[in-house]
Amino acid sequence: MRPLTRAAFGVGWAIGGTLHDALAALQWAGLVRVALLQHVTWSVNSHVIGNRHFRTRRHDRATNLWPLALLSFSESWHNTHHADPTCARHGVDRQQIDPSSAAIRLLERAGWVSDVRWPSPARLNARRL
């Protein structure tokens, strides 16, 4: 068993006190978590619904879908990512929530990362539809 899986099993046992509670915690920490992660990833990469605010390659259909922004840690701003893939912030518009860029900015301020490429208005406006 992996360490996180063992920890979930142990926490379930400690809170519930039964093997059933430990196995339920194991299920939620493992199977459900992985299933949710896979479905969010597939939804982000499906490019079926959402908005396109930026010009990308000719046959690229990447879209931005706001409901997935929190579940995907900002990866659902996929059209923006495809328009400027090296940019550290994908939720570039005012109303777009972007927790991953907040984490990157925090790491940058702590001195743990450097040479972060933040969006520039000129670069974004050149690709905007």
Set down the secondary structure blueprint.
Elements: H1 3-16, H2 19-46, H3 78-83, H4 99-109, H5 121-127
Helix pairs in contact: 1-2
Q: Can you walk me through this structure?
A:
The chain is built from 5 helices and no strands. It is an all-alpha fold and 129 residues long. The chain is elongated and about 60 Å long.
Would you kindly provide a brief summary of this structure?
This protein is mainly alpha-helical and 129 residues long. The chain has five helices and no strands.
Alpha-beta classification: mainly alpha
**Percent of residues in helical segments?**
40-55%
Distance between the amino and carboxyl termini = 50 Å
Overall geometric form: elongated
Low-pLDDT stretches = none
Q: Which percent range describes the beta-strand content?
A: under 5%
Q: Please state the CA-atom Rg, rounded to the nearest Å.
A: 19 Å
Rounded mean pLDDT score: 85
Got a strand count?
A: 0
Biggest β-sheet strands, sense, barrel: none
Feature tags:
129 residues, mainly alpha, 2 domains
